[in-house]
Amino acid sequence: xxxxxxxxxxxxxxxxxxxxxxxxxxxxxxxxxxxxxxxxxxxxxxxxxxxxxxxxxxxxxxxxxxxxxxxxxxxxxxxxxxxxxxxxxxxxxxxxxxxxxxxxxxxxxxxxxxxxxxxxxxxxxxxxxxxxxxxxxxxxxxxxxxxxxxxxxxxxxxxxxxxxxxxxxxxxxxxxxxxxxxxxxxxxxxxxxxxxxxxxxxxxxxxxxxxxxxxxxxxxxxxxxxxxxxxxxxxxxxxxxxxxxxxxxxxxxxxxxxxxxxxxxxxxxxxxx
Length: 273
Prior knowledge:
Elements: H1 12-21, H2 30-43, H3 48-69, H4 80-84, H5 86-97, H6 101-106, H7 110-122, H8 133-146, H9 158-161, H10 164-173, H11 180-191, H12 196-206, H13 215-229, H14 233-242, H15 246-249, H16 260-270
Helix pairs in contact: 1-2, 2-7, 3-5, 12-13
């Protein structure tokens, strides 16, 4: 759907009717009702039912506007069955001529983009070019999944998220950030220290369970390191086991477990964690 500007001209009666059809709260002012409908439209992802309803609302509104403007000027009237099909015909025409809402959502259309900016601003996630840019990226991906926001929109929100040197970098390089994967690669390449992942691999290999360190504390520390290095579950399990304290390795064999939960449980049964 191209935009929702037509909502500004809808009467309150029509607006309430639209809101009820979409199951949106229709109490209070027209401005608030419009905002709720716009927010719903911004959050629609692959939802044909909602998209169909909004398209039909727009078509019905525009059809009524055309009828109103032409009232008194028309010399002939449409047959009843044709008149009843006007709205649905316009809706179908609109569907054929416009990209689906999900595609516009991914293309960051200005009408649906404003609520995303408001949401991202509320996250209070900032980065100024200092330490741990990987944690910044990871946090944004987590929140995008929770709030069902397409990550490819995130590069457009960076003026709200970056400060200092990081913002200066974005201003000078944002023409290349057409997608999240491109932004993430360029961003980390610039802000991560040289040979970061090589050092991270060394840290993972050298990180052993300390004497008297609780096993669960050791596991969490290892998981944090390996997550940043992109280890898959099998690789994480293998490394956690191999780096466990030597006393533990004396009475636990690799064939004794298949999952991390089994490893931790077996460790707890055989020795107090």
